[in-house]
Amino acid sequence: MTIIRYTPIKEIPKIRETLRATFKAGVTRPLEWRKHQLYQLARLAQNEADAICDALNKDLSKPRLEVLRTEVGNIVERATKSAQKLDVWAAPEHPDVPDWQKGWKPTILKAPRGTVLIMSPWNYPFILTFQPLIGAIAAGCCAAIKPSEVSPHLSQLISDLLPKYLDPSAYQIVNGAVPETTRLLELQWDHIFYTGNGRVARILAVAAAKHLTPLALELGGKCPVLVDSTYDMDLAAKRILWGKCNNAGQICVAPDYIIVPRSKQGEFVESLKKAYKTFFPDSALGASHYGSIVNDSHFHRLSSLLERTKGEKVTDIIEGRKDAARKRIEPTVVKNVQDGDPLLEEELFGPILPIIPVDSLDEAFAFINARPHPLVLYAFTEDPNIKQRRALCLPFTVCFISRKHFIVIDETQSGGLVFNDTFQQLTVDELPFAGVGESGYGYQVMKYTYDTYTQLRSSVDIPKEAERSLQLRYPPHGPEAVKALSRAVHLPIPQSALNGH
Ligand code: NAD
Fold first, then answer.
1. I want to staple 83 with a disulfide (CB 3.0 to 4.6 A). Which of 38, 208, 258, 406 is the partner?
2. GO BP, one example (predicted)?
3. Cβ–Cβ under 8 Å, residues 75 and 133
């Protein structure tokens, strides 16, 4: 049985033309029209929640509550809130300018970028398709949407549903795999929003460069977790394991590896066992609130990692049993993992938790900083000296010398930084979400997604009466004009505290 109907390749340019014509005709400009589309998207998520849960159960065995909590509910809420906030976001801004420029009416207009392409992955395929779309609609863009072929039930479902709720002349889904995506990328788009892995992101960036298309790349990587020796190990273990079990570890912000003080490794593993027993009294393997691995290829990739690791698998409770028929792998803790281990090569994207014991915080930071910048860095600590150097940083020179303070905020780089929990940061709608370096660039969620699709179009309207104050600019320039026009060159520059250094 065919689960997903791919879009015929010859249709793809026509789809783009339809969307562009709609944009050019100004259909998406009125704010009331955009709000209606946003409410319609919220209605799609709300009315079709059962069908969405069903599709994600087929694609990923995703537990129903997980789908409602992390995918459907977020879209209902964020689409609705975006519609409610749109008037404020879209209002032109009038920056404060010197008196002599006030009459020019300097204004920042919020212009839609145009016709955009959204490409989403399989792991959270509902929210990661529609969250970027919320911003595109709010900003007044038209969009072609390319969901993942790896989650085919969900992709086909949203293709069937979208035209029932949204204006198909402005928003259309293109289904397919590499050939269809390649065709999409040959065309010119006014923006591309891609969520997925870094390998495909590079293909995309090359294709986009041909048209100078701006990009948002929401990528992944290995998110480290640092546990300070003084932190409550039971609480850290419970919060880390919970974060890791969401979608069986198949999420970009999953804790990837955990760094603990060597003297605390045993206690931490015992705490993980306790947490596991509470979450899954009868093992995760058969639990209805635990998901499966998406396909055989990822199941074999994870199984192979577990066979090749030189670390010690914790075997009594969290023993990492597998069910190949259902593509399930229990959460698996591997301790005493060392640099160079297969588990530390690439993003795990599955329910494996390697533990790296270290002898000092210095060693921990060196380990994290030797790797590409992660999407999120998790740190379990209540010690302000570990959180941030600046908290104790007076004067600068003392701070510079005192290498004994190992400071998370100032000495690492990551897309986001979360103290004392995992995953929960995703519930804060007011914070921007983005990577840095290998984990991507371009901000999203609510206002930040709106901004991504919005061009800040600067405008001035210089009245005839300004002519008097502009006289000096016209040649020929006498000494008075030269002095006035080059005035900025001679502005006094304040002394800084570090003058001369
Ligand atoms: P995927 O395989 O579903 O691919 C994503 C998109 O790229 C799909 O639409 C697919 O059709 C397209 N694609 C695949 N190969 C292509 C090619 N050769 N040429 C052109 N297009 C191609 O998803 P994935 O990449 O496996 O997703 C998982 C990755 O996404 C992980 O690395 C994860 O960390 C990351 N991710 C990041 C975020 C975030 O917000 N930062 C969220 C979720 C996932």
1. 38
2. aldehyde metabolic process
3. no
Atom of ligand 1 nearest to the CA of 221: 34
Q: Is the CB of 205 under 6 A from ligand 1?
A: no
Structure tokens at 91: 């209002």
CATH entry 3.40.50.2300 includes domain 9-219+444-455:
no
Q: Cα angle at 379 between 376 and 382, to 5 degrees?
A: 145
Question: Edge-to-edge strands of the sheet including 115-119?
Answer: 171-173, 142-146, 115-119, 191-195, 215-218, 440-441
Mean pLDDT for the stretch of residues 404-431: 87
Element containing residue 474 per DSSP (H, E): none
Q: Is the CB of 295 under 6 A from ligand 1?
A: no
Residues of the chain with pLDDT > 70: what percent?
Answer: 95
Annotated catalytic residue, options 53, 141, 245, 252: 252
Does the beta carbon of 74 sit less than 6 angstroms from any atom of ligand 1? no
Whole-number pLDDT of residue 41: 98
Distance from the first to the final alpha carbon of the chain: 71
Contacts of 320 (CB under 8 A, 6+ apart): 306, 313, 329, 330, 331, 332, 333, 352
CA atoms of 377 and 385, how far apart (whole Å): 17
122 Cα: distance to centroid of ligand 1 (angstroms):
7
Mean pLDDT of the 460-488 span: 95
Is 438 within 8 Å of 198 (Cβ atoms)?
A: yes
DSSP 68: I
What SS3 state is found at 466?
A: helix
116: β partners: 143, 191
Which distant-in-sequence residues (6+ apart) come within 8 Å of 459 by Cβ?
105, 106, 107, 108, 109
223-431 shares the fold of 9-219+444-455: no
What is the CATH superfamily name and number for domain 223-431? Aldehyde Dehydrogenase; Chain A, domain 2 (3.40.309.10)
Task: Considering only CA atoms, give the Rg of the chain.
Answer: 26
In degrees and rounded to multiples of 5, residue 133 shows phi and psi of -65, -35
Instruction: Measure the CA–CA gap between 305 and 256, rounded to whole angstroms.
Output: 13
> What would the DSSP string read from start to end of 266-329?
HHHHHHHHHHHHHH-TT-STT-TTS---SSHHHHHHHHHHHHH--SEEP-SSSB--EETTTTEE
Tell me, in angstroms, the distance from the centre of ligand 1 to residue 390's CA: 38
Q: How far apart are CA 112 and CA 459, in angstroms?
A: 15
Domain ranges of the chain: 9-219+444-455, 223-431
Give 3's DSSP letter: -
Residues in a beta bridge with 145: 118, 173
Query: Does 403 score more than 50 pLDDT?
Result: no
Active site residue 53: no
